[in-house]
Design brief:
homodimer; 301 residues; alpha/beta; Rossmann fold; 6-stranded parallel β-sheet; 3-stranded parallel β-sheet; 39% helix; 16% strand
């Protein structure tokens, strides 16, 4: 059996279409959603994020402001800068670009973003609302993975779900989202680095959600026949030829590709649905950033 | 094998002893921890709670203030009253007595208690800090159950834990506390009313934590040999004689007793450690209310 692909690009497209309408309505009421991105210092990786964010927001009609602070900015100065954005009525949402220089505690600064402008869903208030099943915004990747899972239209009630990875912004929020319904939740098990027999847990999972960041972690024989597999890992690995040697690019350097945590070619033979990497959860992470931004703009009416 | 009892009274006593020292130190700095209890309307059950709270706090040297509002109090009036207590520097902690009259959304009012005075650990901010593993205060029963579990001194790392019950103030917070450690967490599975095969999950649990409120739910044959069993249920049931008929009290009414969710007489033969009901988690719930109150007082220095 070859699994159906859970197409993140297509789903993200549909979600964005809905958001575009909401944004038009907001503009009709005189509100233009806006996202303020704060970048501290210079970083090539975050340059890429920023370019993508700018394109994604501007395509939607969301204002994008980039604030570039010098890499000597102190934590205190950054906190003050965030506080200014928190109070600025022209700003709907605030995002701190990662990474930040060593003198800054990124988590502390992220937590200081006002709950009502918290487009990454990382403020403790919004995390707490996840416990209560009442969150308006939530961590983008976790929320995106749930959207992709729901798009399979398989009933979640009573299903055995194994979540691999217990990070604060992916594994734990997903577990809370799975437990949202009082009467119709699935039964989640949260595995992680200290889990004694990971395969025993993945093999019994009707739904397997993997968010570790370790290529090759989940092999085909660890997957239950007919399971739904949501692969959240994003790993850059060398491309190998048939003999297992690295393929070189035109500059003579090892060619690299992006893979998830699941061995896709094996898993696709066992699963009923599977999210590919790239093209699965990734596009939804961006879509959820836009959705959170719109939610923040709506809450500020 | 007969399980060792996890004695909640004894552990609560030890914890209170430590708290008493902390309270003395606080008083040395001119701070007297104080707990403001808000009772709306008249209710015989909450009378008992209040009497117990008053005794427990006053024994510790914590000031106890009871605020009695009429049962016609509106939600808005109650929110304003809470706001006054939130701002009162003489108040370290605030607790809303349950139940409240029907015109009041209890959860909404509980959430309005300032995070820094949140002795029940129910404000979303504090719930969110549980996700981050950094909570200073946490829901009393969940925290008490974890203290009792830890008192067994059994290593949690890598253990299979089954949590039965996914309530917002017990099952979910316990799960988050179990997942607190990055490298040394146990592997929790959260079961609930929609779980398809509860016994399959309880039978494989090295640690079984039950918080449902249903007498007789967990029978001996559902428990793994040598498991640790933490029974959080508190149920009032009729006392039956050998023939299964209700025993009457001196007034001719059915005599009642308090039991947990676990069939104790059966479970005690299978488990290595078990928390009795009463005398297990119950006394720790009160001790954690005191601990949270002291934490709040310390945070206000």
């Amino acid at each position: 059996m070859a699994a159906k692909l859970l197409d993140g690009e297509a789903l993200a497209g549909k979600i964005k279409e809905g958001l575009r309408k909401e944004i038009e309505e907001l503009k009709g009421k005189g509100i233009t959603p806006s996202l303020a991105a704060v970048q501290v210092g210079e970083n090539s990786a975050s340059r890429v994020y920023i370019r993508n964010q700018r394109r994604a927001t501007e395509e939607m009609g969301i204002d994008y402001q980039l604030h570039e602070l010098p890499d000597t900015t102190s934590e205190e100065e950054l906190l003050q800068f965030i506080e200014k954005l928190n109070k600025d009525p022209a700003v709907s949402g605030v995002i701190l670009q990662m990474p930040v220089p060593g003198q800054i505690n990124a988590r502390k600064v992220q937590m200081s973003i006002s709950p009502s402008k918290d487009v990454e869903g990382m403020n403790p208030v919004n995390m707490g609302m996840l416990v209560y099943g009442q969150a308006k915004v939530a961590p983008c990747t976790a929320r995106g993975a749930m959207e992709l899972l729901r798009s399979s239209e398989v009933e979640l009630k009573g299903k055995e779900v194994t979540v691999v990875g217990h990070s604060e912004i992916v594994g734990k929020p997903i577990t809370l989202m799975l437990l949202e319904s009082l009467m119709e939740s699935p039964t989640p098990t949260v595995c992680h680095i200290a889990t004694k027999d990971l395969a025993a847990h993945t093999k019994k999972a009707d739904i397997l959600i993997v968010a570790v960041g370790k290529a090759g972690l989940i092999k085909g024989d660890m997957i239950k026949e007919g399971a739904i597999v949501i692969d959240i890992g994003i790993n850059r690995v060398p491309v190998l030829d048939e003999k297992g040697n690295p393929v070189l690019n035109e500059k003579g350097k090892p060619k690299r590709k992006t893979v998830g945590d699941v061995v896709f070619e094996e898993a696709v033979q066992k699963a009923s649905y599977i999210s590919p990497v790239p093209g699965g959860v990734g596009p939804l992470t961006t879509a959820m950033l836009l959705k959170n931004t719109v939610e923040c703009a709506k809450a500020q009416i």
